[in-house]
Amino acid sequence: MLGEGILKGLAETAKNFAGSFVSEDRLTTVEYPEQRIPTAEAARVFPFLVYDGTDWEKGLRCVACQICEKECPPKCIYIEKSKDKKPDYVGKMQIYPARFDIDVSVCMSCQICVEVCPFEAIKMDTEFELSTSDRFGGLLFDREQLAKSNEHYHKIHPTEASEVDARLAEEKAKVEAKAKAAAAAAAAKAAAPAASVTAPVKSESTPAAGAPKAAEAAAAKPMAQTTTAAKAADAALNAPAAPSGKPAPASTEPPKTAAPDAGSKTSGE
User: Fold this and answer.
1) What is the b/e burial string over 91-119, where b = at least 16 CB atoms within 10 angstroms of the residue's CB?
2) Of all helices (H) and strands (E), which one includes residue 88?
3) Domains in the chain, start-ordered, CATH in brackets?
4) Is the pLDDT assigned to residue 154 strictly greater than 90?
5) Contact, 158 vs 41, CB < 8 A?
């Protein structure tokens, strides 16, 4: 039928128009600011800095790595690093931002700063009522104005905040386990020299008991060599003469260098 789609569209429009007066699901207009529509969890307006604990200055997660400042498309983030360090959420000494400003009059709410932050330190807020008569200083937020607690983060983004907390807790547990392992290894290494100092004392006392036997063996060795040389000399003197016309057989024994003792001289004479 010609125009059937148009008629269906008009009927749906009329239905919604009539229902907007009686059905709460179709009431799209509220009396703002007295009445407010709940903000969706995925809503985002301008960034804020997350801190843990009750002291925003001590609990800031930001370590002034300046990644968000470099990646910000409109360049509305200004960071200055501190000269000293303080412990972060896992106890590691880190640099912190001495200055952290965001010009919300320039910010485009792109959320790139949140995506590139490796420390879960910057998130998107849902507060949009930021109008002011000062268009310059009034819209330049410093780190104290930007700092908001982790409880606030859980309030506006509960699902995301729970996932972040679980991930940070796992990382903290790994760091603590690594620190305990390093401490145990250092303790074992410190105990090793004490054992090595005690061991040589026992090894030195063992040879001391057998020292006389070693000395006797060393003294008996030259005497044995002298006796062997004397016997060889006696055998050479008592050997029969070789027949005439035939050369005496050459000795196959190497020459003896040891001098004969008194006993060998007596036998030779």
Assistant:
1) eeebbbbeebbbebeebeeeeebbeebeb
2) none
3) 44-170 (3.30.70.3270)
4) yes
5) yes
Q: How much of the chain is helix, strand and coil, in % rounded to 5?
A: 50, 15, 35
pLDDT band at 63 (very low <50, low <70, confident <90, very high): very high
Q: How far is CA 218 from CA 212, 214, 223, 225, in A?
A: 10, 6, 10, 12
141 exposed, middle or buried (CB, 10 Å; 0-12, 13-18, 19+)?
buried
Q: Which residue has the tokens 């509960």?
A: 158
| Beta strands 47-51; 147-149: pairing state | parallel
123: number of Cβ within 10 Å: 24
Output the pLDDT for position 220. 54
When mean pLDDT is compared across 79-88, 117-126, 192-201, the lowest value belongs to 192-201
What pLDDT score does 3 carry?
84
Distance CA 28, CA 157 (A): 24
The pTM assigned to this predicted structure is: 0.61
Other C-beta atoms closer than 10 Å to the C-beta of 232 total 15
Residues 48, 68: Cα–Cα separation, whole Å: 12
